[in-house]
Amino acid sequence: MTAFVPAHHSPPQAASAAAPGPTADPIRPRLLLSALLLFAFASRVFWLNELPPGLNRDESFYGVDALSVLTQGPRPFYAGNGGREGLFMLLAAPSLAVLGREPLALRLPAAFAGVLFLASVWALGRRLFRTEPSREGIALAATAFAASSLWLIVENRLGWRINLLAPLLAIAAYWFWRALETGSVHAWAAAGFTCGLAQYSYSSARLLPLLVPGAAIVLPLLLRRSVPFPGWRQWLAFLLPALLVVLPLAFYAISNPASFLERAVVLATNDGRLANQQGYLARLGGVLRSFISEGASQPWQSVPGMPAFPPPLAVLFLLGLVLASRRVRQPASCFLLLWFVLFTLAAAIPRDATPHFLHTSGVLPVLFFFPALGLGALIQGAAAWLRIAWLAPAAIGAVALASCGWAWQVYFEGYRQLPELAASFDSDLVEVANALNDRAHPASAIVIPIGSPYPPGWSHPTIDFLYRGSAPLRFLRVDETIIAPELAALLGARQQVIVLELRPQRLTPPDNRGLLDFLLRRQGELVTEERQPSYHLRVYQLHSPLSPALTPVPEQAAGQRWGEVLQLASWAAGSTPVSGRGWVLARWSLQELLSQNLKASLRLRDSAGQLVAQDDRDLLLPPHFAPTSAWPAGSTAASYHLLDLPIGLPPGTYTLSALVYDRDSTRPLSGGEQPIGTITLDPPPRPLPEELRLSGRSWPGVALVGYHLPTPSVRPGEPLVLVLYWQRTAEPLTATTATVRLLDRMGSELGRWQGIPLAAEYPPAHWPAGALVRQVLTLPVAARAASGPFRVDVRWGEGLDFPVAEGEVRGRERLFTSPPVAHVLDRPLGDFAQLLGWTATRRGTDVLVELVWQARATPTRNWTVFVHLLDEQGHIVSQQDAPPAAGDAPTSSWLAGEVVVDRKQLQAPAGPVRLVVGMYDPATGERLGSELADSLELGWLP
Predict the structure, then answer these.
(1) pLDDT tens, residue by residue, 523-552
(2) Angstrom distance (rounded) from CA 869 to CA 917
(3) Per the count of CB atoms within 10 A, which of 313, 350, 690, 905 is most buried?
């Protein structure tokens, strides 16, 4: 094959002689090239470990696979994340070996690939336009536009395999063009080798086997006098190295066709996995717009919305396209247009929305020559008109300087301040990985709970790549059918577990029912808890290997019902071996559809009915944790409850009961609190916290070592709860009776308890020496008590009284005459209340109701008043439940003859509504009334 000389051009020697002085001097172009390469290197490595922040998900996938190169050796293709060619992982592996698991280790190879691309563009331009007088200018201008392209700056700063595509394509184009020019067998072999090597960079390179041989055939046909056909030696020199290089990848593709073609199938077919799908012409329009008017919207592709060329360069780009089209009979222009058209048409094949710069990256080797041609035409016209020989190099230098300065400012000042940048690069997961690296040690195991939408074995590549601790880490699916064996296998003999929950926006909330916490605290203690915006970290210390706690426990059948719609199907309960904490597994069954969202309250009570521990949980249906209003009829779901036992709780048998209530209104379902079984507890001894301790309160055989007053203020008629902590001493007991008195400021007694502490289940004679015993007392405060301070005195046997605690009685002003009302009623409710009258006023949608009650006696319980507004069909359109006078006048404080004014404010739509009032016990849901009615109907409001 003979070399070709493009038609209508002088030989290279003549062209060189005709070139203007500055462009003929090789020193100045190379100085400018060196400056451009230096700028490209600086713009691609400056702040590279911090900008962009975090690590993109795809970068993490490459990092995980590059790490596998260090341990398992290289592979031609990696099946994960839709399938990826393996050359980038091979190049990134040495960087990871030196720098470790850092974003910089992945991004440095990409940055160097970006600089290599610029050198390739310069070499390709000088080869393509070898016979042009302005070849140096075109090559330098194209290099300058590539160096300052925000598209490339953003892309070259990410550890992606896409960064290898453009330089390998440009090098392949260079050797192809050189081979086509010279007919050199060595050049054809180099072209074949680089075409084969490019197949390991990115899927777009698969067009090269079509483009390069096609161009070798099409160009001679279109340009008969300029380009000869390659001979068989040239074809053999090209094909043999190409096939040898691509052989491992081809073998993988034949052996694993589904994996190799997965990404292509997803992108090229409408299989429902892609959002925002468009037709081909719409996608092609998006690709074309991405060059001049509308860029990609994602910050991991470029500055959001910015096209490949800003407006001034977009004009030059269009001008260059027109010039190349007019010179289509010239080999270089024809080659540029063939390449541009083929890769542009191919970029619109993927069915996800455009613009998408990753799909368009195949056009990069020729893209920047079009604005360079446009700039060259303008400069040549201006130089001929002004007759200034040095205008060309000066203009190119000025344009290069302005482009590079603009790109630097936009990227490092504007791009880094984008509010969506941190989320696009998983900055929160980088924070998570750093937190795990700081806390993990070989004796612990790390669990990141995930929800059911994620398959077993799923993990997030960013954490996989950045986590470098020695403790085993697993993304654990919180599914009660598989979690126990997987957790036991992960922990082995380890006794510390680190649980890190990602923020709900990051993953589907995986453990809304607290199953993982339930399993771990059955066998250990929560020792550390830390909440950050991006994660919630908990550290558990197990008392022994976890396996016993994961063993399935037999459940007891149950039949308790609430509201005739919800049933407790079965339950299991027990206590933890070291802390003595109670635990309950309750399984619920919904019989009918329900409009309410319910919570279950599991409660532990002693023999006197005192509440010992309580745990309330939303009733949620996996896998999406739907509340009961979204449960289908017949659904069954479990709730997991941990009952933290108070310090000093006596050993014995305790009653377990359940209460179900509306999550929004907190009103119990009919059925109230129902016992479901018993639990035998023997809590281990624990020291009393310092803030509860007393000193100097002792009698023969016993000492009062601490107290707790949960509410230091109390209303008249309310019970005062007092917790006393006794400790048995080594001396013999001389008495077993204690007396506790509540006294006002004058020493008058407001309440009293006297008896043997815990006489029924754990009397003092059974207390071992040193035992700490908790006693809960409820002292009824006289309804007549006036406002003022009070004190609590305690004595043992006939010993002295010791003042233990102080507080305040918050009395109220008493009223014994009724204020005027709009509607006089005088109707009884129950055996202690009389409704004297009521007044109701409307103000728009607001309804203000004033009820006037009179006490006939002092009840022993505190009742809640409810007010319902009903429409004409009897449906409740508004309601309010609250103690009388918003809690300032609890019913247990009412004195006979006292008048209580109770105001309620409700919202109601326009139209007549019926007013109904009544009272109920909030603990049981029992309504106050007679055999005939448990509410009072007051009348209609217009």
Answers:
(1) 889 999 999 988 999 999 988 777 666 667
(2) 9
(3) 313
- Give the pLDDT band of residue 656 (cuts 50, 70, 90): very high
Q: Directed axis angle between helix 185-198 and helix 232-255, to 10°? A: 20
Radius of gyration of the chain (CA): 41
Strand 444-450 with 473-477, pairing: parallel
**Eight-state DSSP code of residue 410:** I
- Residue 280 buriedness (CB in 10 A; 0-12 / 13-18 / 19+): exposed
Residue pair 698/718 in contact (Cβ under 8 Å)? The answer is no
**Single-letter amino acid code for the residue at 680:** T
Handedness of CA 112, 116, 117, 119 (dihedral sign): positive
Report DSSP state, residue 668.
B
Q: Are 10 and 73 in contact (CB under 8 A)?
A: no
* pLDDT above 90 for 724: yes
Count of CB atoms situated within 10 Å of the CB of 723? 18
Rounded to the nearest angstrom, the gap between the alpha carbon of residue 196 and the centroid of all alpha carbons in its chain is: 42
Closest CA to 53 of 541, 518, 422: 422
pLDDT score of 715:
87
Give residue 604's pLDDT. Answer: 96
* pTM for the full predicted model: 0.78
Q: Which of 465, 462, 487 is nearest to 474 (CA)?
A: 487
pLDDT per residue over 271-281, tens digit each?
Answer: 555 555 678 88
The stretch 886-901 carries a mean pLDDT of 90
CA 671, CA 668: separation in Å to the nearest integer? 8
Report yes or no: 754 and 709 within 8 Å, Cβ to Cβ.
no
pLDDT at 743: 93
Size (the chain), residues: 942
